Amino acid sequence: MDSINCLETNVAILGGGPAGYVAAIRAAQLGAEVVLIEEREVGGVCLNRGCIPTKSLLKNSDMARSIKKSKEFGLQTDNVQIDWLSAWTRKERVVKNLRMGLEKLIADHKITLLKGKGIVISPRELLVATAEGSIKVSCHSLLITVGSEAAIPSISGVDLPGVINSDGALELKEIPSSLVIIGAGVIGLEFADMFNGVGTKVTVLELEDRILPGEDKDISEELLKLLKRRGIAFKMGARVKEIRETNGALELAVSEKETMYTAEKVLVAVGRKLRSATADIIKLGIEIDEHGAIVVNEQMKTNIEGVYAAGDIIGGKLLAHLAFAEGRVAIENALGMESRLNYDAVPSCVYTHPELATVGINEQEAGRRGIPVRVGRFDFRQNGRALAMGERDGFVKIVINAEDHVLLGGQILGAQASEMISELTLAVTLGVKVEILADMIHPHPTLSEAIMEACGDAVGRSIHKAINRIN
Ligand code: NAD
């Protein structure tokens, strides 16, 4: 039998994704000895198979689209060819550079990185199968950050070659001529945008009656209109019954009327499955909810003393930036600090063109919660910078408490929405009154003036809105 090496540490972190690696670095900053265990690459899904590679490839389709519009800007760009393999290689390079940077950060912080599968054997012990043999890690505190993976729906034919998930879509070395995407959530729409931009015939099939069912209705309707205008086809209320292979193509039978869709590739994007319910974690006696999420309190502490969890495995919104924050909060609490998160001010972005970025609650959510609200709106077609940029699509919507005018949420559909949402996130975090943003001087001309105008509109004083106040 192989001998087992032993390691003792203050903190052991299982999973080196956004929650895990941020927690590891924060723990090191706080003077703790840290062992970080990762079976694949550090950076997790976000860096290796999610946020970063998708944004790299979305830049290609964005550029392709800009070039198509170039005549409007007086540029002649005939005969433009797309070399997807170069785009793919560039994406790989971006990911590799960031991963090397992260590995250096981990090493610089003297974090022990164990590459291999870790199994929890008790709240204070793990066994890690590394290439060099098994290592037993004993710790004072354990943080579980094992993340999530693409969910596979129970549709007949889902395992056929050519049916891919987001991981497979990022590995395509050629642009598919046609693509059917199952699911109009964040992943479905980002890939629809990406492949539409480089010439693929894209059809999106969504079970619900609208895209991005969790987002503000006005925003999701407008984004649907814009994506359709660009040539992406959508079918709502579509339940895929079967996928089959016919004459080298994939055929999808949808809902009762047996509508058929045909495509070269099918991308399944129906949500993600949490990884928490592994046998070792269940054996530990950790409380797990009906969605498979590890239950934690606001300190990210599980029901087992000394065991914390953060990131996708605690459920809720599966967002890398939330995982960063949860990892930090978990480890600060594990190391004796008092740390909490404000879940009312978590921004969320969809990197389609135009982008969608939201924070706080939307109008419908306020209605469900019985909060009396006022809404402000400002369209980018009335914003000078947007017109100068040729980015007139979309609008900003602001939701305020009707009584005290405190900003409760905001939604931005438009160019650079993901960069602009931080102004609203700060406002929601601080609980500021909308008049503060309406009066705050915004540089001119900028897209962010649309936020100021939407805030003004909520209280009847937008200067540049054609018809002031929509409510
Ligand atoms: P999602 O939950 O956002 O969307 C899945 C969509 O699929 C929903 O609209 C749902 O109604 C639909 N659906 C479910 N079953 C279906 C079926 N059988 N047929 C047709 N439609 C069906 O999930 P996702 O898009 O896979 O993303 C997974 C997670 O990753 C999300 O939590 C998301 O927030 C996160 N993510 C975030 C970003 C970002 O922040 N930009 C990017 C990618 C992923």
Average pLDDT level: 95
- Largest beta-sheet details: 5 strands, mixed, barrel
**What's the gyration radius in Å?**
24 Å
Overall domain count: 3
Overall CATH class of the largest domain: Alpha Beta
**Distance between termini?**
74 Å
How many helix segments?
14
Give the low-pLDDT segments: none
Shape: globular
Strand order of the largest sheet: 1-2-3-4-5
> What is the CATH-assigned architecture of the largest domain?
3-Layer(bba) Sandwich
Output the CATH homologous superfamily of the largest domain: FAD/NAD(P)-binding domain
Strand content: 25-35%
Secondary structural class: alpha/beta
The CATH topology of the largest domain: FAD/NAD(P)-binding domain
Number of strands: 21
Bound molecules: nicotinamide-adenine-dinucleotide
How helical, in percent, are the residues?
A: 25-40%
Describe the structure.
The chain has helices at residues 18-29, 44-49, 51-68, 84-108, 166-171, 186-197, 217-229, 279-283, 320-334, 363-369, 384-389, 417-430, 434-439, 449-458, and strands at 5-14, 34-38, 112-122, 125-130, 133-144, 148-150, 163-164, 178-182, 201-205, 233-235, 240-246, 249-254, 259-263, 265-268, 272-274, 307-309, 348-350, 355-360, 373-379, 395-401, 407-414. It is α/β, with parallel strands linked by helices and 471 residues long. The chain has a five-stranded mixed barrel. Strands 7-14-8-9-10 form a five-stranded parallel sheet. Strands 17-18-21-20-19 form a five-stranded antiparallel sheet, with helices on both faces. Strand 8, helix 6 (186-197) and strand 9 form a beta-alpha-beta unit. Helix 3 (51-68) runs antiparallel to helix 4 and helix 3 (51-68) packs parallel to helix 6. The N and C termini lie far apart (74 Å). The protein binds nicotinamide-adenine-dinucleotide (NAD). Nicotinamide-adenine-dinucleotide is lined by residues 153, 182-188, 190, 205-208, 213, 238-240, 269-272, 318-319, 349-351.
